[in-house]
Sequence to fold (619 residues):
Amino acid sequence: MDKVRRSLLIGGASSLVAPILPAPISPLNAAPLRYNLKAQRIAYNSYVVIGKTEDYSPDNGGDIVNVAFIDTSDGVVLIDTGSSRRYGEALKQLIYATTGKDVIRVYNTHFHPDHCLGNQLFDKKKIAALPKTISGLKASGEDFSSNLYRILGDWMRGTEVIIPEHVINYSSEKFGKHRFEMLPFKGHTDADLAILDHETGVLYAGDICFLDRAATTPHADLESWHKSLKEIKKIPHKIIFPGHGPADTTSRSIEQTDTYLTWLEKNLTKSARSGKDMLEAAKMPIPEKFQSIDVIELEIERSVAHLYPGIEEKTLPFLGQGDS
Amino acid sequence: MSKTNTKHKVSKIAQLASKLSCAALLAIAISATPVTINSVSAADTAVSIPKDSLNSVMWDFMAKEHLLTDASSKKIVMNNSILVHAPKVAEDQLNLPIHVDARSIKNIQKIVVIADLNPIPKVLTYEPRQAEARISFRIKVGQATPVRAAVLDKDGVWHVGGTFVDASGGGCSQPAVAYGNDDWVKRLAEIRGRIWRTPGQKSAKLRFSVRHPMDTGLADGIPAFFIEKLELKGADGKLLGNLYINEPISENPTVTLFPILKEATTAVQITGRDNEGNLIDVAVPAPVQSSALQN
Ligand SMILES: [Zn+2]
Fold:
């Protein structure tokens, strides 16, 4: 259905009926829009840029995602590129200011737009992704981008979808002293890349792990996701850097993502078994231990939309079949 | 299954396209608007249309086209005691949940649900008989739109309530729908459902789903293919309600109704057909009271 939004934006029909307005530009934003990105060092040669734990809004310009870069003697390795061309620009400047080096490798951990729409600023031949991330971005990138234009307005100006050209079909690669192990998971989407830097012990988990920010499920397969979390737990590491939320030195992000998703599915199943519709199911009470997780109410409502029809189909008893 | 299913099997591959065609058709719907307004019959000259609290430019047209066409219409009033619940933003535009509650109106003939800015605005008509005047269902929306419930009473008065739904989801909001499912013909018109009873409550809760593509017929070469009518009866043969659903209802229509069942042991018979003559006829068994709320 994202196609609908897109065609409304470009088709002209919309202006005749309900004008689809770009996101409002608040007086605060009247000055040129600027991301205020900051690099934090989390390990030897390793820097992270931590996004706000919020939903997309014209106020944050889509600065809601974590990216990371590693300063190797061969050049900089970048993990994810942010939500827009403008974000990519700010990121590139920050990387150069911090390291004085150029980027030699970019990874897109998965095909969601907050992780790949800053790709434009980098050489697409050097942007690496799993095959299904590439096909997913080919199929949905334009729709994602249209959505974000609508939500973020001018922040998105000039943003184009750039498809990674370097296919990850190997298990590791080395830049300088850093050997990066490719860890292909799935569950958040069809292809979720985690990367382990053997030099530092930092495990870049992408959106397999969230911390203190509710996990999102638009393309989730919960069973695979749990399996991935179980696997990731076994991988020796010093720090986990999740796709959203702060760096994690205690593996809390694995635990929290796992228990949250388990709780979510259990509650939706219970709701379906007691005959609730989607609107009723979205009103589930949030347990104490999850109450400090950012945007949890919003994400529950969204997850009901993503997951409930499938869960209902599993729980409503089969009664028979029509015929002609 | 009917022979015509083969063509749907082919067309099913393009089903996503069919669902996504709303925008294109919107243009047609708009260009047709003035023509249709001119052709509206005498009914609208006699009944005045109140101002729309949702400020929809399509409201007058909706009223003329979908409400005043009923011969018994005498009056239209806006009534905010008719509740239309929906999420503020449609996360999945193919599955927007709606709950309509019109229990404040007595002697109801029918409830008509309209989404003004959909290429096909009319969502459903529900005639509750031995049932409470409320219903849950899911719809497809092409863009941000008012969703309204118009309730016609026995005196010919339309009571109209509604809400506005924004159709912009998050950037990650593209629904993950499993298309290209090869078994869909085999599973066409599969019916699932169950009745729940809460002790002390007048009505039972009946939730059921019918596996059906509900194709809109708006895309080139893909014929409309949707369930037209469902009739609900108690075990005694008494009519509980009639439900006429239209193309904007989501794929695999999933509906909650609130029948008033005298006996705790009453099953509900659902019969109906789609526009190609596929028949639906199934009994939803009586609720097992003790376990209803436990599992
Ligand atoms: Zn993601």
Notes: Residues A 110, 112, 188, 207, 216; B 172 surround zinc ion (CB under 6 Å). Chain A has eight helices and 13 strands. The longest helix of chain A spans residues 131-152.
